[in-house]
Design a protein that fits this description.
This protein is an alpha+beta fold and about 80 residues long. It has one domain: Resolvase, N-terminal catalytic domain (Rossmann fold), CATH 3.40.50. It has a two-stranded parallel ribbon with strand order 1-2. β1, α1 and β2 form a beta-alpha-beta unit. The longest helix is centred in the first third of the chain and has 16 residues.
């Protein structure tokens, strides 16, 4: 199955490394589940309260999902 990763941090006080750490952890989990990561999307210093359509990375991830570019969704393998 193909999976996408979406990583985000909310404030300028957090590090861009947070995105890298989140993506690394997600890649490790995907590998353990036998998933192939086909895309990584992210938003830096954008609050989770910001609507998805105003978050470029989240919007791109949703668009990829709607275009069936990946198969896995959060919760499918928990």
């Amino acid at each position: 199955m193909r999976a996408a990763i979406y990583a985000r941090f909310s404030t300028e006080l957090q590090s861009v490394a947070s995105i890298e750490d989140q993506a690394r952890i997600c890649r490790e989990r995907a590998t353990a589940l036998g998933l192939t990561v086909v895309a990584v999307h992210s938003d830096c210093a954008i609050s989770g309260a910001t609507p998805v359509n105003r978050r470029p990375g989240a919007s791109a991830c949703v668009a990829d999902g709607l275009a069936a570019r990946f198969d896995g969704r959060a919760g499918d393998h928990h």
